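RETRY 2/3 - previous attempt timed out on the joint model. Re-submitting the same 607-residue input unchanged.
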Amino acid sequence: MGIARPMRYIHGVTARCRKGLPAMSGRRFHLLCVASLLGVVLGARAAPAATPEAYDPWPGLVQDIFNNRPMNDGAEVIAIEMPYRAEDAAIVPVTLRTKLPLGDSRRVRTITLVIDQNPAPMAAKFELGPDANVTEISTRVRVNNYTDVHAVAELSDGKLYVTKTYVKASGGCSAPATKNADEARSRLGQMRYRQFARAGQGAASGAREAQIMIGHPSHSGLQMDQVTQLYIPPFFVNQLRLWQDDSLVLAMEGGISISEDPNIRFTYVSNGAKRFRAEARDTEGHLFQKDWQVDASGM
Amino acid sequence: MAHRVSVLALLVVFAASTLSQAKAQELPVSEVAPGIFVHLGQTALMTGENDGATANVGFIIGDSAVAVIDTGGSVREGQQLLAAIVARTDKPIRYVIYTHGHPDHVFGGAAFTGDGTVFVGHRNLPQAMAARGPFYLDAFRRIMGAPSMEGVRMIPPTRLVDGTIQLDLGSRILTLRSWPAAHSDSDLTVLDAQTKTLFAGDLVFLTHVPVLDGSIRGWLGVIDELGTVPAERVVPGHGPVSEWPGALDGQRRYLGTLASDVRKLVARGEPITVAADTAAASERSRWQLFDDYNARNATTAFSEIEWE
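RETRY 2/3 succeeded.
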């Protein structure tokens, strides 16, 4: 995953070079392209940050992640909310909200979250349980750069609908990395479940809001071990599944752009189940499982 | 094509060497105690205009050697600090001590990579610099621009501190102590017993709103312990040299307020975004750069306190 970005960037530069040829003298432009490519090869990840607006990775991402399927305007289907400025590069809140009106015969099957300028742009793919009526999902992501963030909903009609927002990278000394190396290790595998009151919606409606927290250091794999001089392999939660009794509420395929200690807050509709169950797997094959009694009051 | 590329490369090398040979002017420093010199950083964000010179940096001269404490926010600042040292002593710089790994403290490291200089830091610092270094270099090239970032690279410490060590500058013993996660996860302090001067790095902020990048609960605990260090004055990471331990009062109140506000929000079931907007609002008039850092501090504190 770590090398995906530089490879794509080279692709982007060469594409731009080809497109740019008519615009300026071929010879001069060619020299510039050689210089850019050298920058990519030698300076690696420095180049994209220096010119965040230089090229738009989205068309390439549509190809890589969505196999070039047509993208429809998602303004009526899905909303994405993020702060305009990432306050802490390691913890940027994001909320996804479905907007299909009551009575629409379609439903949202999946929502894919893409942070275009991150080293691993595909942050997460959420699968919404067929009977859980999940309408809102909040989590936290790492944001490395000034970037578009896309949310792509796949509806039951098989079509993709996209919406996007823009986030400015944080300033200062925050970084998309562990803040407390000692604590991160000790929390591995802990899981917490919490249910929240939904203002104005009584227990009878069945509407619920809940949160799952998983203690996990989520190493990006882009850093070198100072002792062994080897790259630490990526280590993060790549699969999370949540059920009420045996009915799927929400599943997530995650990447390294999900913040340390993954935290998912979501709405759903109770089917009357007494137990809520979570199962998470990470890239080293650890399986974390836990279940909880659901508070019948809806609180 | 190979020819053109090599001409380009030669030009780059030539330009870089010319720049590095330009004589650096001296960073203004004041002698806060005998043999202890401090430059007070601007209370500002790191920018191309200030060359990242926002943190306090300093040096201590012993009978046989010099120790530099933090290197500044650019190689330019580091070179100016070096010029200020050379103007005052011909003793060798034996140690460069990092109080932690943030850019405004470590970006000047490349100015001090001379023969026999040992870089010293917290046991977690090499890992923190490895994990954050590439991101910082990218981000600050964007924020400060290429001229201020000229020559900046991460120089990790090779002498690591886990607990307490002493360094002898010749009739002058410095006590270095590593702390559990607080401002960051690699905070280190330097105590000069002779003058009872404590270099606290970013474990202590005055004027500049404290910045949380480690553990709020850890920091509140460290403040209490730090207060027992037998010093008379502190050189904080940001803000004026101040009386000890009274200098801790402001940030103890700020961090205590932030923690208790966030704890209430977590208990009420509010989302993290509400903490960013509201926590510690009562502290707003008491600090500079509050709007630049408070929301971020609240976000960081929330992600820790929700695990209580």
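The longest strand of chain A covers residues 147-155. Closing ticket.
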